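Tokens as discussed.
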């Protein structure tokens, strides 16, 4: 009994520490913003404040700008990743490996639907950044209005479709055998929160394009903190099991959407809504769709990858194989958070300077971001290779799952130092409004390499062939991206 009791006590202590850190970051950042607003009376006008921040994109040192944009983005992704890890720990220890497998099946489906909001946000944010850089505020307002209408309509439409075809969708994504019932239980609850997640994802990109990276961070930080707080309450104290994890996640999505809405309505945002701006504009919708299709295609490809991966894992490794990837997938988001943060911070800076025709600064931010992200990724790689057993043991006390996950994790992360090249290459073309090369580069890893390799390699190497696929795909995608950047962006910058 003493041994069994010590595990929950430690985990609850960890969870409480994370809660304190997250809430501290939230209020400390709020205080920083309050001081910033009060330091200069002229900043009481939101448009003036916003204009000053945006002008800084074209004048401030690039290193300072990248830190200002990337650190809040990284912090938001970090906290979001911590909540994902804590969520997996609670489910793994209080529900079991089937619970981890169920979440592994469901999450790609929910994020595919929610990525509609992300695609609209990224596509519209690119237009907004370039419009601000060109001094065209009217176009920025019309773009935001169209983003709002598209996100609400499409988010609700696809959620309804999800409920109508819930069993068929779960089956396609690998929810079979003993995993089917817990996956259905989890999906039917989380699906209720997906429209709110779509709204939060759209808003996050718009807020960052306006020059408010800390506020954008809150849209990610808030659901993470809410989820971490609610997980032990629902899963353990109320004994709701997997359904408790699902309700904690759903409520966290609603909280994030509520905060984003509050920000747009309270006056600090420069964005304005009126019937004129919300009225569909064919030209703007086409441009949002063109640029946002990069994000949607990337997420769509990831979802196709999930179908192939989950089914291959079930065939070659059963429920245990799905649970192994449940741990690996969570860690991929967690350990790569600084690189993803740099990528997000890079986009508005590159987009603004490209719109303002400051090509030397565009070149400078590409170079700085690439070097910084690659050095960080290399450090992450070393930590994972050295501390693999300790990392895996945090997620589960199942000896077989620990034993099988350790070598699989090391194989999947072998090419981590190269990941920044493909991410930033795609982000560059997306930032400057070049949808076709951005789409091509964003699909390289998952679409052109990983999916075919997952079909092919297990035929020769069994489940290990799945893990071999990840470093091969990272290497191939990085090599092609580097070649493409070297040969294609030179004309833009000179």
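Sequence:
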């Amino acid at each position: 009994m003493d041994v069994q009791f010590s595990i929950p006590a430690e985990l609850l202590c960890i969870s409480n520490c994370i809660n304190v850190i997250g809430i501290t970051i939230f209020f400390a950042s709020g205080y920083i913003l309050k001081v910033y607003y009060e330091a200069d009376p002229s900043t009481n006008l939101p448009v003036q404040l916003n204009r000053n921040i945006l002008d800084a994109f074209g004048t401030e040192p690039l290193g300072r700008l990248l830190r200002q944009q990337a650190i809040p983005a990284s912090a938001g992704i970090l906290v979001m990743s911590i909540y994902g890890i804590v969520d997996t720990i609670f489910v793994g220890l209080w529900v079991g490996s089937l619970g981890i497998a169920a979440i592994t099946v469901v999450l790609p489906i929910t994020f595919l639907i929610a990525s509609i909001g992300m695609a609209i946000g990224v596509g519209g944010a690119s237009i907004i950044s370039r419009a601000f850089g060109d001094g065209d505020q009217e176009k920025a307002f019309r773009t935001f209005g169209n983003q709002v209408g598209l996100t609400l309509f499409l988010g609700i439409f696809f959620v309804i479709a999800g409920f109508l075809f819930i069993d068929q969708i779960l089956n396609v994504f690998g929810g079979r055998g003993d995993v089917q019932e817990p996956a259905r239980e989890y999906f039917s609850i989380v699906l209720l929160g997906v429209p709110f997640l779509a709204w939060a994802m759209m808003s996050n990109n718009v807020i960052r394009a306006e020059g408010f990276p800390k506020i954008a961070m809150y849209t990610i930080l808030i659901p993470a903190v809410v989820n971490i707080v609610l997980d032990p309450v629902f899963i353990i104290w109320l004994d709701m099991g997997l359904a408790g994890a699902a309700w904690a996640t759903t409520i966290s999505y609603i909280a994030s959407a509520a905060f984003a809405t509050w920000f747009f309505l309270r006056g600090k945002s420069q964005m304005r809504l009126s019937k004129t701006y919300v009225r569909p504009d064919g030209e703007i919708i086409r441009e949002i769709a063109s640029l946002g299709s990069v994000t949607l295609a990337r997420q769509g490809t990831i979802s196709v990858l999930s179908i192939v991966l989950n089914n291959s894992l079930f065939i070659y490794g059963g429920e245990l194989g799905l649970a192994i990837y449940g741990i690996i997938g969570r860690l991929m988001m967690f350990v790569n958070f600084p690189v993803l943060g740099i990528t997000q911070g890079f986009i508005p800076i590159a987009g603004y300077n490209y719109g303002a025709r400051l090509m030397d600064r565009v070149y400078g931010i590409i170079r700085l971001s690439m070097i910084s992200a690659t050095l960080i990724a290399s450090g992450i790689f070393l930590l994972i290779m050295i501390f693999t057993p300790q990392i895996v043991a945090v997620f589960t006390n199942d000896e077989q799952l620990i034993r099988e996950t350790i070598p699989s994790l090391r194989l999947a992360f072998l090419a981590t130092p190269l990941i920044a090249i493909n991410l930033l290459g795609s982000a560059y073309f997306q930032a400057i409004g070049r949808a076709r090369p951005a789409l091509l580069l964003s699909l390289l890893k998952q679409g052109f390499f990983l999916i075919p390799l997952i079909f092919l390699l297990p035929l020769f190497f069994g489940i290990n062939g799945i893990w071999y696929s990840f470093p091969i795909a990272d290497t191939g995608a990085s090599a092609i991206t580097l070649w493409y950047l070297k040969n294609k962006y030179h004309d833009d910058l000179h």
